[in-house]
Write a structure and sequence with these properties.
Elements (H helix, E strand, L loop, with lengths): L5 E2 L4 H27 L1 H30 L1 H6 L1 H4 L10 H18 L2 H6 L3 H21 L6 H5 L3 H7 L7 E2 L29 H21 L11 H27 L6 H24 L20 H21 L8 E4 L15
Parallel strand pairs: 1-3, 2-3
Helix pairs in contact: 1-2, 1-7, 2-12, 5-10, 10-11, 10-12, 12-13
Length: 357
């Protein structure tokens, strides 16, 4: 394995640029949150039909960019940046438990989009505020990104699944020095995968649920229509029924393949399931955005039906599917980590690469 890139400090100009970009994304987050509260229709469009559809492709190509500019991360790291954090280290067991809770939370929260969040702006705002508060509270107690950004955040399992073969490593715009708060550090480990850490049962369960379950879960999710939840247990059951059944089928297939796959080919198997998941997402999401969805107006951004040929949409789906399978499965792994590791707290490191300014 090639020697990891290390830097001591970001050049002031580079750091300033990243701080400006982080501030801009943070302000965009505040605008979207305000719209969700006071202009729900606009907020829902901006959050669920513009920001979220772009996110999976961004994670595939440059997970590190999102890790640097995520508004939740910027907010959640404020206690550490202002010297208010107790800087506690998570034990391997705690890290594993957090990792498992994150993927379970993802599978619990996402179906509720159909029941509540896709049609209720204030409810979506409350969800976001709850996540910000949870991350901020964890930031008061635990070191850097360990407890939230690399732990309990429900998006993190998706980052690890889709971010296994990113374009290039970027400077770490959050961690000024490495406190070794997570082992392995997802930001600094080349070609990180959900199942990369097998140090305890919690990590193994988390990796298995993420890699094996997500493709089926995504397929099932797109077969449930949006509805305004009235409190009926039957409605709630219907919201989870198809996604969870498809998740179990996907997990079973993955488990059987994994049991009959040599260890050296496991990254390829993981890449296949990652490509299947993100390709499935866009094969349903792109038509829905432009009026060709299988569930009517659910997830509609702009209705192009009758104005744009359906074969054009199908061509886009073929192109995106081909790209993701090439990128995540066929393309040679380049040993890039999401972000370049800063020097360790108690160690002196020489500059081994020039950072972009």
């Amino acid at each position: 394995m090639p020697e990891l890139k290390v830097y001591r400090h970001l050049p002031p100009r580079t750091l300033l640029i990243w701080r400006i970009v982080q501030a801009l994304f943070w302000l965009i987050g505040v605008v979207i949150l305000s719209c969700l509260l006071f202009f729900p229709a606009l907020g829902i469009m901006l959050f669920w039909n513009i920001l979220i559809p772009v996110a999976p492709a961004l994670l595939v190509v440059s997970t590190g960019l999102w890790r640097n500019v995520c508004p939740l991360a910027t907010t959640n790291l404020l206690p550490r940046r202002f010297g208010l954090s107790k800087k506690k280290k998570l034990t391997p067991k705690q890290s594993g438990v957090f990792s498992l809770i994150a993927i379970v939370a993802l599978y619990v929260i996402v179906p509720l989009r159909h029941a509540v969040f896709n049609t209720n702006g204030p409810a979506t705002a409350v969800l976001i505020i709850t996540m910000v508060l949870a991350g901020g509270i964890l930031g008061f107690f635990y070191e850097w990104k360990s407890a939230w950004c690399s732990g309990l955040c429900p998006i993190h399992p998706v980052e690890k699944l889709y971010g296994g073969n990113i374009l290039t490593s970027l400077p770490n715009a959050h961690c000024s020095e490495c406190a070794n708060c997570m082992v392995p550090c997802p930001d600094s480990t080349p070609n990180i995968r959900p199942e990369a850490s097998k140090k305890n049962l919690w990590f193994r369960m988390s990796g298995f649920l993420t890699t094996g379950g997500l493709p089926g879960f995504i397929w099932g999710w797109f077969h449930v229509p949006d509805n305004r939840f009235t409190g009926s247990l039957h409605e709630l059951f219907m919201t989870y029924e198809i996604p969870f059944f498809a998740l179990l089928v996907s997990l079973t297939i993955y488990g059987l393949l994994l049991a009959n796959t040599e260890q050296k080919y496991e990254p390829k198997l993981s890449g296949f399931f990652a490509a299947a998941g993100v390709s499935c997402y866009y094969s349903y999401r792109i038509p829905a955005l432009f009026g060709f969805g299988n569930l009517g107006a659910d997830g509609l951004l702009i209705d192009l039906k009758g104005k744009f040929p359906e074969w054009g949409i199908n061509l886009i789906i073929v192109a995106t599917t081909t790209f993701f399978f090439y990128w995540l499965l066929v393309r040679t792994r380049n040993k890039n980590s999401w972000l370049i590791r800063p020097a360790f707290v108690k160690k002196t490191a020489t500059v081994r690469n020039k950072l972009p300014v």
